[in-house]
Write a structure and sequence with these properties.
With about 250 residues, the protein is an alpha/beta fold. It has eight helices and 14 strands. The strands form three sheets. A six-stranded mixed beta sheet has the order 1-3-2-4-5-6, sandwiched between helices. It is elongated, with a radius of gyration of 25 Å.
Length: about 250
């Protein structure tokens, strides 16, 4: 019997499609985990031993590995170390070991969570999905932080240097406060943004007009007619909307 089995479900067309590896030598446990993950539309590959999963990692990268510590060919803690050396996927330890030292070592080696057998399948799935959400959000934040140049209708904003370049090539050095607001717009075009969202503050006083001052300054730079704005529109009673299409480089 092969050491690896792959299950790809189409039961939920709108479900997340992150690939999950299940590394577990007990077939009954593996099938239970796979069925639970299948219900939520995850593609799953099952491996009976550590060597099989390490071979697959040479050609494929999963989004998360569910790893048993008691494998027949390699200790699960060592396997986690080797997985972490070749991929930055999420790791959930699923094991019968309840010793504190195993938990500590696993988490210190980069595991995201630790579940002790016996387990409730739905709780396991909830933990898996929580890990995937956290790692997905972190990845998006990292990607966003690396984006520097936002271009829209001939204008370019250099978010790192606080420089706004006009279509004719003229450069305007703008203040940090204006850059913060303009970046909030270009990161979420065609969305209504509240004053609190634009200033990254909560419970903003209704008397605080700082956002209006900043938007007025930006409009004077980028609008053909600041009195009749076409790019930054006021949505009365809700906030503001940036209407231009934005590309990043």
């Amino acid at each position: 019997m092969s050491a690896c089995f792959t299950l790809r479900s189409a039961t939920e067309p709108g479900a997340l499609r992150q690939l999950i590896y299940v590394v577990e030598d007990d077939e009954g446990v593996a099938r239970l985990v796979m069925r639970a993950l299948e219900e939520f539309g995850h593609p799953v590959a099952w491996f009976r031993d550590g060597k099989s999963v390490l071979r697959r990692l040479q050609t494929e990268r999963p989004d998360l590995c569910v790893v048993d510590l008691g494998l027949p060919d390699i200790d699960g803690i060592e396997l986690i170390r080797q997985i972490g050396a070749v991929t930055n996927c999420g790791i959930l330890i699923l094991t019968g070991r309840s010793h504190t030292i195993d938990r500590v070592m696993g988490l210190e080696l980069g595991a995201d969570d630790y579940v002790v057998k016996p387990f409730e399948p739905r709780e396991l799935v909830a933990r898996v999905r929580s890990i995937l959400r956290r790692r997905g959000a972190a990845g998006q934040a990292s990607a966003a932080s690396q984006r520097r140049y936002a271009s829209f209708i001939g204008w370019t904003l250099d978010c790192a240097a606080n420089i706004l370049r006009a279509p004719d090539g003229t450069e305007h050095v703008i203040g940090t406060a204006e850059t913060q607001v303009l970046r909030a717009f270009v990161e979420r075009p065609h969305q209504i943004l509240t004053r609190e969202q634009l200033l990254s503050q909560r419970d903003l006083s209704p008397m605080d007009r700082s956002i209006d001052v900043r938007i007025s300054r930006i409009r004077r730079k980028i609008e053909a007619d600041p009195q009749i704005p076409k790019i930054i529109k006021t949505v009365y009673g809700a906030g503001y909307m940036f209407t231009a299409t934005v590309t990043w480089s």
